[in-house]
């Protein structure tokens, strides 16, 4: 499959501050790549270079083979951003029709997209009067109406309730199946883990990991054993392979690289052991391990 986004050796500075340092990233048609990293990692800078908002300083950025600083190239691009500003004078219908025409499509392309996203009833309304979640869906309509080859989704589900979020991912899954490439930035790590085909982790302007969500988590040796116990913390720490011990109410969470050895001895020593559970590490823990920072936020 062709790459809809090619980023090769990209560097970017703000004065003396290095925001990106030799970043490579490729997104194929029909693939969703999640771009994750703690605050200040360089995600917004990379998105800015891809939309053509920022001028390229070092390396190559190509959208469908073209330079995103050129208007003709940007027609292949759809962008959904959390902080989308809309002109106050236009109705939702006019905004989406305008986006269609700017992308070289007929104004009539707007109505089916509004219907698909479930906001046909908003067409006569003006954007400033809409809720955050409604505005987010208008942004999605404007991005999809141009039939883009590459979608940039920057914190796209902020402000959406659970059912709107589900509907949002369903629509995007349909576009991905139809061959649209996507770059997703989000602080909701569960969404990235559930939707993205690959995860690229940026840290201090560099790519520190690129893999499938499962591939990233399987690199982590740790398991967490959760249980009720009669042992105190020093006794737990003395068990084989224990790395961390954390109390949470009447339960204890024990991190270990060797759950079998740990459990064998724990079961032999502890008559009060009950409610035992062993969990694998998730993508969130993998990101913390890779960057040393916790980048998850509680979903709104
Ligand atoms: N206009 C600017 N002038 C100076 N420094 C900047 C500018 N924009 C970003 N930076 C710096 O460049 C680095 C990368 O910023 P960027 O906004 O790309 O990170 P990010 O990963 O999007 O962070 P966040 O998750 O907080 O949005 C940060 O250290 C930031 O302070």
TrEMBL record:
Chloroplast among keywords: no
For this record, the Gene Ontology CC terms, alphabetical, are: plasma membrane
Give one GO molecular function term.
Answer: ATP hydrolysis activity
List this protein's GO terms for biological process: response to antibiotic
| Membrane topology summary | Peripheral membrane protein
* Annotated localization: Cell membrane
Please provide the record's keywords in A-Z order.
Answer: Antibiotic resistance, ATP-binding, Nucleotide-binding, Transport
**SUPFAM superfamilies tied to this protein:** P-loop containing nucleoside triphosphate hydrolases
Residue span of the signal peptide, if any?
none
Tree of life domain? Bacteria
State the Gene3D superfamilies in the record.
P-loop containing nucleotide triphosphate hydrolases (3.40.50.300)
Q: Name all ABC transporter domain ranges.
A: 5-229
Q: Which Pfam families match?
A: ABC_tran
Q: What is its main location?
A: membrane
Q: Which PANTHER family match?
A: ABC TRANSPORTER ATP-BINDING PROTEIN
Q: What is the protein's given name?
A: ABC transporter ATP-binding protein
Identify the taxonomic lineage of the organism of origin: Bacteria, Bacillati, Actinomycetota, Actinomycetes, Pseudonocardiales
């Amino acid at each position: 499959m062709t790459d809809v986004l090619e980023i090769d050796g990209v560097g970017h500075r703000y004065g003396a501050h290095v925001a990106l340092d030799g970043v490579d990233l490729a997104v194929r048609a029909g693939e969703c790549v999640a771009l994750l990293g703690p605050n200040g990692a360089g995600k917004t800078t990379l998105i800015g270079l891809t939309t053509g908002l920022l001028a390229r300083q070092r390396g190559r950025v190509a959208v469908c083979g073209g330079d995103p600083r050129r208007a003709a190239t940007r027609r292949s691009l759809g962008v959904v951003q959390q902080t989308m500003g809309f002109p106050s004078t236009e109705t939702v219908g006019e905004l989406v029709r305008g986006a269609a025409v700017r992308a070289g499509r007929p104004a009539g392309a707007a109505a089916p997209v509004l219907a698909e996203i479930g906001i046909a009833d908003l067409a006569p309304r003006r954007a400033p009067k809409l809720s955050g979640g409604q505005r987010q869906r208008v942004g999605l309509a404007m991005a999809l109406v141009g039939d883009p080859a590459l979608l940039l989704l920057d914190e796209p589900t902020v402000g959406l309730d659970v059912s709107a979020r589900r509907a949002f991912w369903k629509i995007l899954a349909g576009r991905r199946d139809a061959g649209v490439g996507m770059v997703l930035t989000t602080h909701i790590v569960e969404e990235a883990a559930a939707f993205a085909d690959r995860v690229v982790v940026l840290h201090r302007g560099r790519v520190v990991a690129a893999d499938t969500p499962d591939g990233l988590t399987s690199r982590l040796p740790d398991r967490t054993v959760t249980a009720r116990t009669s042992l105190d913390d020093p006794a737990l720490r003395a068990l084989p392979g224990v790395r961390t011990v954390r109390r949470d109410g009447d339960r204890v969470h024990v991190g270990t690289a060797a759950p079998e050895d740990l459990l064998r001895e724990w079961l032999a020593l502890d008559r009060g052991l009950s409610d035992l559970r062993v969990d694998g590490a998730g993508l969130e823990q993998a990101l913390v391990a890779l960057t040393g920072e916790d980048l998850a936020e509680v979903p709104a």
